[in-house]
Amino acid sequence: MGAVVFIGAGPGTADLITVRGARRLAEADVVLYDALTDPALRDLAPLAQWLHVGKRGFRDDSTGQQDINALLVHHAQHSKLVVRLKGGDPSMFGRLEEELEALAEAGIASEVIPGVTAALAAAAASKRPLTRRGDGRSLSMTTAMTRTGDMHATRTADTEVFYMAGKQLAALAARLIDAGWPEGTPVSVVSRAGWPDARHSDHTIATLPDASEQHAGRPAVVTVGAGARPLNASLTEANLTQVSSDEPLKSRVPPDGGTSSSPSIPSEP
Ligand code: SAH
Description:
Helix content: 25-40%
Bound molecules: S-adenosyl-L-homocysteine
CATH architecture of the largest domain: 2-Layer Sandwich
Shape: elongated
Radius of gyration: 20 Å
Oligomer: single chain
Mean pLDDT: 87
CATH superfamily of the largest domain: Tetrapyrrole methylase, C-terminal domain
Distance between the termini: 47 Å
Number of helices: 7
Strand order of the largest sheet: 3-2-4-1-5
CATH class of the largest domain: Alpha Beta
């Protein structure tokens, strides 16, 4: 009887996995991986059997989940080390509880190795710190999609990051207003955070529906409130000068205040 290690692959390219995650992945006999994980991670465990068990978007996929649970148990019973590789962090919107429970019921040992969740990669890609001194003291990470497929939004923290909202930004904007956020609240949308073609756009709640086209068909997180606010321009300049002195500053500061892709992020090929 083997064991199962859940590993957070991070939200983008293979190098966002943790060192511990990479080491454990290299020991795997079987890897059950999700759709949003970088195929380049295969190089870390080239001799393992790689099985794709990904699903995209919300649907009533309890059967699919049961199949994954059964596969985990089956492979753990027939090999030494099974890795369950999940996009981002395994504990964030990844059905981890069902899989841990299935393993516990079968008496199989498990371990969880954390990963960088999409909200954090989006903050990094857009250079928008999620916490701000003074008015950004709390953070909420929320799925905007309910079990019935409706949109739901709240105002429980100074900064709220919404996962799984990309397809319904107009509905999200309406729910945010219902939840009491003022129309002019800053909103930052980042899609494919952590990938070379990451895209960032700035909005307010009133203009959030405009983001749909820019981020269509790409996994995106929507950050609302204090943590979405663009940095003070003079601070941004000082910061960018420090980070990259070999590149002219002008090319790195958005001429329109940031409504287009962030200048430090290569745009789509
Ligand atoms: N466990 C994952 C989240 C899985 S839910 C994590 O910790 O990041 C899937 C949702 O995550 C997507 O609908 C999207 O909202 C978000 N997401 C995943 N990868 C992303 C990425 N690279 N950039 C932006 N959002 C991403």
